[in-house]
Structure formats: C-alpha cells, structure tokens
Write a structure and sequence with these properties.
Chain lengths: 137, 227
C-alpha cells in the first residue's frame, strides 16, 4: 500500500536563523576593529522544523542569467522568537549544511501559537554565502 | 479510611526531574533542545506538574515524595497474613542519613494514651508496596482501644526518591501526557482532553495490580488528589 502523507517519516531539521547586516548596539551601528562598518551574520533564533517541498522549482533572474529556485516550507513549533523571523533573514540547516533565504515573514496560520510556518528559498547569492561562518563554499 | 496527605511536604519537581529531562521533554514536544525556556509558549514545569498530578491520581501512587498519615482500625493487626500494607508507592528511606520514612507508628490504648510501636518490633519488607509484618502483633498492642474506630496512626513518606527510581513506563506516560496537554492546551471542555491510548497503556503497564495496595484507601481516594 502506498504510504500516505501521515505515515511518511518526517525528518526534523535543526534550523538556525541569522540576521545579516551591520551589527547594532542601542540602534547605533558598531564598526569592526578596523573602524569599518561591515555586514556580518548574527544568530537570531533557532528551532526544530519539518521541511516540506510545496512547489516545483521556479526560475528567477539573477543578474544576466537565469537560475532555478526551490521554495520550501518549514513547519515547526511556535516560539516567541520564531514568530519574529522576518523576510530577508537567513536560515541555516545544520543537517544539510546549507543556507537559505527567508521568504516572507513567519506565520501562525490559526493564531493558536501551536505551529509556525516559514517559507525559505535556496537562492542565496554566492557573495553572501561565502561570508557565512562555517558554511561550505 | 481517614488519611491526611501533607502537600506542603511534597518534594519540588526540579529535585527529581533534572535539566536533562527537561531538554529531553523539549525535543519530545517538538522544540529544539537549545530553545530558551522563556521562548516556549507553555511553562514546561507547570506542564509536567499537571502530568505528574494526573499520573499520581490514576496510578494510585506518588511520584513526587510526600508525607501521608493513615488512620487505621484495630482490625489492621488481625489480618490472616499478619501484614500491614502501605499504599502510595515505595517509601523514601534515606538510610545513609539515618532518616526513617516511617516517622510515626502509634496506637491509642484504653487509657487514651498514645503508645508507639518501634521499628525493631516488626519486619519491614521493602519494595512496592511496603509490607510491615510481625509474627504476632497482639503483644505489641496489648491494650489497644478497640472502641475507637481508628486507633492506629502511621505517618510515612511515599514516592520516588530519585529520577532513576521511577518506572520507565511512568516516564513514558508522563511525556505522552505532556505532549497531549501541550497540543490541547486551548481545549475548554473536559471530553476534548481524553487522555491518549498510548498514555493509558504506559500508565497501566505492570502497574494496575496489587502493588497499588488499595486495601485501606479505596473509599477515600478522592481526597488524594485535589489539584
């Protein structure tokens, strides 16, 4: 018998959400040791998520070429900080050692603080991906 | 039988369930174990306290140690097996520090004086339930007041002294119940929070038997868990 959606084993991934930008302290940009304002990754929050593939890959233009994008939906348990994940943050999945971009804000569809849904896309540009600490090039 | 449960003597939850257990529980509920406690929408300690409370009520044994006082009739010494069986799970006997779990074992004599029965006068069978046995109880209680409905008083501390003492099936039952309470935390009516079958199986596994020692408490169980 073909396994149903319910019976399918659902791997949970440990995800780390990062902000990328100039670090702030009291809303004031903090320069690095050389006195420069540089963008860097800072850990925002973390969670345990099932990763669903909702759609076929889509094509997107990057500069002068076309790349295939794949969207995923992360489904996890609601926490206060995960509800504050916003569009443009980065999601690093430890098991896959891969960096994704958060597409749209985190949503709690039923408003019951049970589950949280976060869309991610695998279209991180090379120049950003290389700056991620510990991520493979 | 009348009995008194001293809830103020109950061991704190975190004394039995350590941080490792709470991290484990976080994973079980679907949270990353590194998630800060403040970030989770439910209070895990409160959740576990509810689960423990329900499990204690349904298993008829204490998980968190607490003091209980039983008031027994004089006929307790007249059973054919010459045994007194203490309900509510194992007793917490800290032999190293010399603390005896049975703090009071007395009876009222015909002069209305309280007489003690010392531990050396009878044999104590550890395990669950605790059994007190004496070849002949009558010399120990020569002038017990038989007119009094409950002349015998036993005070002792029952429960599991450490996390490792708690049966595995009970631990599994607690986790399942925590998940259930977490998932249905917005349920507003009693029937919608019927406990899951997996919980009931683990709760009942090898536990709903004579080890519960219901001999003295059947009539009064409603008083045990008022939370």
């Amino acid at each position: 018998m073909k396994p149903t959606r319910r019976q399918r084993p659902n791997i949970k991934y440990r995800c780390r959400f990062y902000k990328y930008g100039v670090p702030l302290k009291d809303d004031v940009p903090v320069p690095n040791e050389f006195g420069e304002l540089t963008s860097e990754f800072s850990l925002f929050t973390l969670g345990l998520f099932a990763k669903e593939v909702p759609l076929k890959p889509t094509e997107a233009e990057e500069g002068n070429r076309t790349i295939a994008e794949q969207k995923f939906i992360l489904v996890g348990k609601w926490t206060t900080s995960l509800s504050k994940v916003t569009h443009g943050m980065y999601c690093y999945i430890l098991r896959q050692q891969k960096l994704f971009v958060v597409d749209g804000n985190a949503t709690d569809q039923w408003g019951d603080r049970q589950n949280i849904y976060i869309n991610i896309v695998d279209n991180v540009t090379q120049d950003i991906a290389t700056k991620f600490p510990g991520a493979p090039l | 039988m009348p009995m008194l449960i001293n809830r103020s003597s109950e061991t704190t939850l975190t004394d039995i369930f350590d941080e490792d257990f709470f991290n484990n529980l976080k994973s079980y509920l679907g949270y990353d174990p590194d998630t800060p406690i403040d970030d989770i929408p439910v209070d895990l300690e409160e959740l576990l306290q509810h689960a423990v409370s329900q499990c204690e009520q349904e298993q008829w044994r204490f998980i968190l140690p607490k003091e209980v006082t039983l008031y027994l009739p004089s006929s307790v010494f007249c059973d054919a097996d010459k045994m007194i069986v203490l309900p509510f799970g194992p007793i917490v006997n800290n032999v190293d520090s010399g603390v005896d779990a049975i703090t009071t074992f007395t009876y009222i004599d015909t002069n209305d004086d309280v007489q003690s029965i010392t531990a050396s006068d009878y044999r104590r069978y550890l395990g669950e339930p605790i059994r007190l046995w004496c070849d002949d109880w009558s010399p120990l209680t020569p002038n017990i007041k038989t007119d009094d409905p409950y002349p015998v008083t036993i005070t002792y501390t029952a429960g599991y002294a450490t996390f490792n003492d708690i049966p595995h099936s009970t631990i599994r039952a607690l986790k399942i119940l925590c998940y259930h309470f977490d998932s249905f935390r917005e349920a507003i009516s009693e029937p919608s929070v019927v406990t899951p079958a997996a919980y009931q199986h683990n709760r009942d596994f090898a536990l709903l038997n004579d080890r519960r020692a219901i001999r003295y408490i059947v009539d009064d169980w409603s008083k045990v868990n008022s939370k």
